[in-house]
Amino acid sequence: MEVTDKLIINGSGSSKGGRFHTVEINGSGTVSGDVECVSFLFNGSGKTDGHVKTQTLTISGSGKIGGSAEAESIRINGTGVIKGDVKTERLNVAGFSSFGGGVKADDIFISGKVGIEGDCETETFRSEGKCKIGGLLNADKVSIQLTAGESRVKEIGCRHLKVMSRKSVLTRFKLMPAPVLTAELIEGDIIELADTNAKTVRGNHVRIGAGCTIGTVEYSGDFTCDPSALVNKVVKR
Amino acid sequence: MEEQLISKKELLEETSISYGQLYRWKRKNLIPEEWFIRKSTFTGQETFFPRAEILKRISKIQKMKENLSLDEMREMLSPQMTDVNITSAELLQKGLISKAALQVYGEDGVTFTSRALLSLYVLEGLLQSGNISLEEGKLAAGVLKTYEASELKANTELVMLRKLGVTTCFIADAEHILFEPTVKVVERVALAAASEELKTKWMQEDHQWK
Predict the structure, then answer these.
(1) Which of A4, A39, A140, A194 lies at a 20 to 30 A Cα distance from A179?
(2) Cα Rg for chain B, rounded, in angstroms?
(3) Where do the H-state alpha helices sit in chain A?
(4) In Å, how far is A46's CA from the nearest CA of chain B?
(5) Most confident option among A231-235, B118-122, B151-155, B189-193
(6) Mind telling me how many Å the CA of B82 is from chain A's nearest CA?
């Protein structure tokens, strides 16, 4: 892009959108309209109500994007809210983020809490903490580390799914809610579960770990089940 | 309706592909979202696919994946074409397009972009069918040429009509088109399907759409 303009809002101000080289909102600025730029940076509590197209999008503090976001990499430190669809190569969340649409990425790493209303498509999905996905989580490799509270994914479709659970001292003394992953349907080639509630699990190699409650398991290769897990029905195909 | 659908479970057994592959192909848009049909059965929610289409698509993917990457396949399976430049001489040499079609199209000796090539290919098909005359071919070429700048949609059709010996032709992307009974529909060509066909032919010629 040959545009060299910089848009910097320090303190509280507002600007219209457009094409820029860099956009930086320090403090509580507002950008109205669509923005196309090379890098977009929120420091503090910035807001934009249009679509954002950029190479690197960084939200430090609390940023809010009213439209969709398209970027090569998205980094959210603190609180990020994107109301529309997200398309990126790398999505990195440390803190809390909420996406109103679907998320398409190559690599997603979440430490903290994330909410995705629509479907999530990515090659690798790693989450530590809490995640809520309203649609289908479709990924090659999914690794979910549960810490506390309920994570919820409507459907998971993948090649390899690994759910791990790490109970801290606080959850042992019931000061924090026990970690659990709730899903309606899990399908994959290799499925390793722990502390998971699911209606149906279908896979090739299925390993049900401690603390699981599963309605039906359908498997074609091998199946192992922890004695503490509750599986209602097992079907071998 | 029932026998035309296939459940995901049956599909995996029949084609011996894994969940991982199915979901990867879905991610790469090799299998359209609309083909995933959700239905509730007594065992809970299940996903079904249109039987004939999905089996055809999967065998196509399996055949192609030996020498193509997934991204290249997506290019090929999507109706949108990527850039290509080819001269009329090369086209004749490959036998993809006949001389007659080139003459009707009217731009001899120039290079063709992918969209122009699609128009040519459709025209070639029309002429080959023997249903239209050369004059009518020119009519179709004119419409196709003006349409080249617009985006190709999934249900775009070229329709050719004849009434009382007068021919006309148009391009539409409507779901239903109703004609008065005295009109004879000479040809209806789905452009997206033609594009896919053209690409398959092209790939067999050992070319890559870059």
Answers:
(1) A140
(2) 20
(3) 169-172
(4) 33
(5) A231-235
(6) 21
